[in-house]
Amino acid sequence: MTVEIEIIPTGRPPRLEDRPLEKRIGLVILATDHTTEVDFQRMVASDRLGVYVSRIHYANPVTPENLLKMQPALTEGAALILPDEALDAIVYSCTSASVVIGDRNIEAAIHAAKPGVPVVTPMAAAVKALKALGARRISVLTPYTIETSRPMADYFAELGFAIDRFTCLGLTDDREMARIAPDEIRAFAREALAPQSDALFISCTAVRAAQVAARFEAETGKPVITSNLATAWACLRLCGDDRARPELGQLMTKPYREG
Fold first, then answer.
1. I need a surface site. Which of 12, 154, 162, 189 has the fewest CB within 10 A?
2. Does the record carry Transport as a key word (predicted)?
């Protein structure tokens, strides 16, 4: 039996706001990434600020050659985030590829799809973070091989940072990097931090280091910057969120300076 149900249209269209949320951050992440999205939902997303994600193809192992192969996909990856709508910031979330491809090349590729949007890379954000903390002597911990770590060491050195100790774990699969247990991250971080360093940088957006940053700082008395902590901090500040959140680490109490 067919039941006739009357469907009644409203007498007027609904009022539309300019945006569902006040601020919008785009993430261009690797297809294999387990960590960036989770970290940004925990540290960045709110009722005021939305995080929107696009994934691009990536094939392990993590080598300079494979990292460089992502460059052609960056424009399309950015274009797929809320097409034809403006973003307040966009992150390319791969630290080692940021070094190999280069911050300016990444910015140009993303601007081809999203003109004028502030582009954040983990390395550029880490440098701003270290400067915000007044750190010039640093220790570095990466999950990569020596081959993949070397360009990062050169990157920091060319910018005038003194590297007291540079430690790498020798992994080649970013999915394994994401599976490093948090207590292991803290253990390796303690070994990697040279006593004379002003701060420790833990590289890789796959590594769950942002989860342990504040606890590590409490244990050592030294600030720690992680890839996802640095990009999250940069995005929050670019979106006008200047709240001090020491529970996430010392960096989240510092202002951000553009340029």
1. 12
2. no
